[in-house]
Automatic annotation (TrEMBL):
SMART domains: AAA (SM00382). InterPro entries: AAA+_ATPase, ABC_ATPase_HisP-typ, ABC_transporter-like_ATP-bd, ABC_transporter-like_CS, MetN_ABC_transporter-like, P-loop_NTPase. Residues 2-236 form the ABC transporter domain. This is Amino acid ABC transporter ATP-binding protein, PAAT family (TC 3.A.1.3.-). Belongs to the ABC transporter superfamily. Keywords: Amino-acid transport, ATP-binding, Cell membrane, Membrane, Nucleotide-binding, Transport. GO terms for cellular component: plasma membrane. The lineage of its organism: Bacteria, Bacillati, Bacillota, Negativicutes, Selenomonadales. Its main location: membrane. One of its GO terms (molecular function) is ATP hydrolysis activity. SUPFAM superfamilies: P-loop containing nucleoside triphosphate hydrolases (SSF52540). It comes from the Bacteria. It is a peripheral membrane protein.
Amino acid sequence: MIKLENIHKYFGELHVLHGVNLEVAEGEKVVIIGPSGSGKSTLIRCINLLEKPEEGSVVVDEVNLLTTPAAVAKVRQSMGMVFQQFNLYPHMTVLENLILAPIKLKGISKDEAIASGLLYLDRVGLQDKANAYPAQLSGGQQQRVAIARALNMKPKIMLFDEPTSALDPEMIQEVLDVMIALAGEGITMVVVTHEMGFARKVADRVIFMADGEIIEQNTPEEFFTNPKHNRTRQFLSRIAHAV
């Protein structure tokens, strides 16, 4: 479903990704971890070309997005993305935030968009907030709305870029609970996170990145109990309290 080959990304003189290769199968749950500055967020943003690599190929559903620019918009409609910041429109209600993209980008009727939007709000436990504005919600609630908004586009793939990093500690679990439930529904997920407990519980495969490269990848059990690479062991020893 997703295949990144020999991805190189630069920001000016800074070489952020060094020939990264990654494949994600349909329905697979991949969690990417690693220290700050390792290239995790850049890599996930390359999947939908929010960051465009200077070298390599980005193939989604057998379409190379780097050589088929006309297909990018359509492929993006099948990928939901949740960011560190919630990016909700402050002047719109929660429900208005959810229905905007399905109507504008997919041509869905307003009634259909509202009906599905209310269903997804119910799934994240916020149907009673449909007419509230983002400023009236907690950070955890806003992030759950952002997830519902992404789901209302009926994506085949969900990308999460450190979705809990901007939240207060007491709000993190409510967002993780939504993601854990989503993971049980067969959707393809790629998640950049520092939440090791989530990685152990949900991932089919854990990937460790450092210095712009994939250093190690394995099942959660093998990764956390028997890491092969010294760099991985060093990282896990530093965050052992979170595992």
